[in-house]
Amino acid sequence: MSRLQPVGQKKLTNICVVRYKRAGKRFEVAAYRNTVLAWRNGNQTDLDEVLQAHTIFSNLEKGDIAKSEDLVEAFGTDNEDVVCVEVLNKGEFQVSEEERQAHLEQLFKDVAARVTDMVVNPETQKPYPLSTIERYLRETLHFAPTDKKSAKQQALVVVRQLEQAADFPVMRAQMRLRLRVPDRATVPRVQLALHELAASASRAAGGKAAGADGSGGGGGGGGAPERLQVMAPEDLHDETVAIDCLADPGLYRDIGEIATKHSSSLQVLELKAAATDAETAAAASAMAAAPSAAAVVSGSAAMPTPTPDAPTASPAAAPTSVGGASAQQQQRGGGGGGGAARRGGQEMGAEVADDIFARVDGRQQGRGGRGGGGKNGGAAAGGKGGKGGGKGGGGDPEEAARRKAERMFKLNLRNAETGDPVAQLEVGKALLDGVGCAADVNQGRHWLEQASLQGVNAATARLETMSVSID
Predict the structure, then answer these.
(1) Which pLDDT tens digit goes with each residue over 405-441?
(2) Which of 52, 116, 300, 428 sees the fewest Cβ atoms within 10 Å?
(3) pTM of the entire predicted model
(4) What is the pLDDT of residues 352-363, one digit of tens each?
(5) Distance between CA atoms of residues 196 and 190, nearest Å
(6) In terms of Cα–Cα distance, which of 177, 237, 223 is closest to 342?
């Protein structure tokens, strides 16, 4: 008896066949279309929503089911759910054009988001809008993502291309790090190593900028930004010394090696930080006061001992940075008004920063002159409404120290709320002493107790001191 076959029959039109070869045999599973990628990306975790049947086939088109002996030989088990998961994770399958385009578009957005998080505008020290990065990648760099590399790897390649582009000035967003040195005798050697690293990094950045510009000047109005800024050391209550620094993420490994070499610990205070004028001045002052190599070797380097719990006052004079940065400061000041625009934008506050953001996309060449006008506008506004009175003077160390203390308190408070014991200790001390915030004994005691529960001896000692004083 003859069997009737449908005319124009299309088989397996709504099935994604995932094939996997192991131990010389082929295993196949039937999955729903557009679900395998979601399973591998972790967006889909329900196996029933991915598989049409929990059955392992040796030939899905013919309907041949794999033998249990073959499953045990290849996978060590005949549990079909376990084998299905391994086939889904490691097998090969065909992707439709629509699914491929959707995957590449999502990958492009992921790369653009990572690039936005990695770089900032060197003139405003603020990140670019995501839409600006996406449009520049599409229209100027003509970036096409590939599924052969991860989004992070492709983002790092894009960042290197952006750093070499003359019409789109960017710099890597810096990390705020803290080195905890065990004793003050080790501080000069740690400082010397950090300053040598800062000098070599500045020379390398200057060489790259000169090579990209072709005439020795950085594109975008000014010299190369400092990749490492080292702050003055501060004594902590647990008899250690803290050295804070703002560093390019590419220098994290080198700084970690310095910390390991000198029996110190390295902490990440902030993954994305921007240096203020006060911190830049403090870093330059620390660099100027750093001991020389001969002084460190001979042991004659005298380190100043700051008073504990006292905020470090920043000098009002313009600093001199490592590796001939004074020339870079002059370049910033004269490079098409870039330095004046940057200083003017910072003094004008959030309004001018928002205005700069509105003019970032597609108008990079005119930013220097308009930023310079922003500075003049800031002076005029200070004359009319008093907006620029305190900041325009730019030389009050007490005001700079107060602002720094407030910033550090907010930073420590964020970290303390996430469970950082050192941040909890610092927040408790600040609340008790009224440094950077209003004094609050109850809240200060609360944070010290939280730090003490995590084994911070300095917090326990401070609580005992408070108990004795109350008694």
Answers:
(1) 888 888 888 888 888 888 888 888 889 888 889 889 8
(2) 300
(3) 0.45
(4) 344 434 444 444
(5) 10
(6) 223
